[in-house]
Amino acid sequence: MKHKGKRLKDSVTKIDLMRKYSARDAIEVLKQVPLTKFDQTMELSLSLNVDPKKADQQVRGTVSLPHGTGKKTVILVFAKGDKEKEAKEAGAEYIGAEDLAEKIAAGWVDFTDVVATPDMMRLVGKLGKVLGPRGLMPTPKAGTVTNDVGTAIRDIKAGKIEFKVDKNGNLNTYFGKISFSLDHLVTNFTSLLEAISKVRPVSVKGSFIKSIAMSSTMGPGLEVEYHVVQAG
Question: Do residues 53 and 203 lie in contact, with contact meaning Cβ atoms separated by under 8 Å?
Fold first, then answer.
């Protein structure tokens, strides 16, 4: 740990943490930080000008990153009958109903995403205390409660992610792996930011995004420039 700390400290001394970077420059800087033994995730933290306590200022949506997430997906699907077969053909790792619910209720969470057909939600709803805190509860808005389970599974595996503002007005998400090419990361970043901007609440006055910070898993946080969009 001391070695990692020294490496990060040495890299930070060469970075201007008071500067606002363009997305491309920030990514280039983070790519220059000494690599770790694992492929780090490229992360974003946005401070939004919203009050999440107000129903009309909830910020939530999905986006399909053009070049994927780089993360391994393990998809669990609650479905029966023909939909169970459809899920299997689409590449879901776990498919079932009551059997899976029992395992999850006992604490098993070895999966990254959950998809469910609408008729399964009465069963899935009982697992809220386990799935909710981990961000794994399927929802119609995210496209993970659907009868078209095949499309939902393929979308997730292709790079579809969900984003949501927290109770403090911050939105934390990711847009790829540090091993991606510079151009691919810039494209993913741009697509993500555009998707977030599109779900701006109409009741927000002035600027929607107050600040953006970018980092890699083990790298420093860099402030990123963005275009301020005023309410019309």
Answer: no
